[in-house]
Each structure stands twice: as structure tokens, then as C-alpha cells.
Design brief:
The chain has helices at residues 27-32, 103-107, and strands at residues 5-10, 15-23, 44-49, 63-68, 74-81, 95-100, 115-118. The protein is mainly β. It has one domain: Jelly Rolls (Sandwich). A 7-stranded mixed beta sheet has the order 5-4-6-3-2-1-7. A hairpin with a 4-residue loop joins β1 (5-10) and β2 (15-23).
Length: 119
């Protein structure tokens, strides 16, 4: 897993969504992603830039997904993506945030919300 971390902030709602957002910046961190993990804590997530689809082959747990456009606005949300699945590409998306299954219900994110990845 990537050692580089940031925070995921919902600027529209002025609140922190994820306090430990792992940034998949290198070839290896993008390739490995969350493989090998048995779970993802509620305050954790993984950010993939230049990405509009993900797969969960080899995963041991389900994920919720946040798809963002080039301005970091939420374009799509996918809940409870089970292991062994692949999402269809979200054409307007330029990045994806993976969070623990069930997180989207607690975060109350809406399509169009402006998010920010940073420190």
C-alpha cells in the first residue's frame, strides 16, 4: 500500500471524509492497490488519479467507489462493489476514490459535490 497519504475533504459540505487517503502515485502502488488487505478502516481510502474504472479481482472485501471529474466534482457513486468484479468506465471520470463498503451512506456525498485531496 502507498505510504503517501492525504485527506479527502468535501468542500461543498465543508467536512473531512477520509483522514488517511493513500495516494496510488507509482506504477507499483497503482498495480497493487488494496490487494493483500483483509479490510479497510472507515477513515481510510485509496485515490487513483487518471482512472475511470476499477476491478476488485483478488480483493477480500467489498468497496464503495467515488468517481471524480477533472475538477474533482463527484460524477458517480458505486456502492458495495464485491470482490471479483469490474466496473464499467465512467466516461466523465478522471479519478476514483476507494473507501470501505458502507462509507458512502455515512458520508452523505451527492453527485456534483466538490471534493479536495490534500493535507
Amino acid at each position: 500500500m502507498s505510504k503517501v497519504t492525504a485527506k479527502l475533504i468535501n468542500q461543498t459540505q465543508n467536512r473531512e471524509l477520509v483522514s488517511q487517503l493513500h495516494l496510488a502515485e507509482s506504477f507499483w502502488s497503482r498495480l497493487i492497490g488494496l490487494l493483500g488487505r483483509t479490510h479497510l478502516n472507515i477513515d481510510e481510502g485509496m485515490f487513483f488519479d487518471r482512472c475511470n474504472s476499477i476491478h476488485t479481482f483478488g480483493m477480500k472485501f467489498s468497496l464503495d467507489l467515488i468517481f471524480l471529474d477533472k475538477t474533482m466534482k463527484v460524477t458517480a457513486l458505486k456502492r458495495d462493489v464485491a470482490p471479483g468484479r469490474m466496473t464499467w468506465p465512467v466516461m466523465k471520470a478522471k479519478s476514483v476514490v476507494e473507501v470501505a463498503s458502507g462509507s458512502l451512506n455515512k458520508m452523505n456525498i451527492q453527485i456534483g459535490d466538490q471534493l479536495h485531496v490534500g493535507h
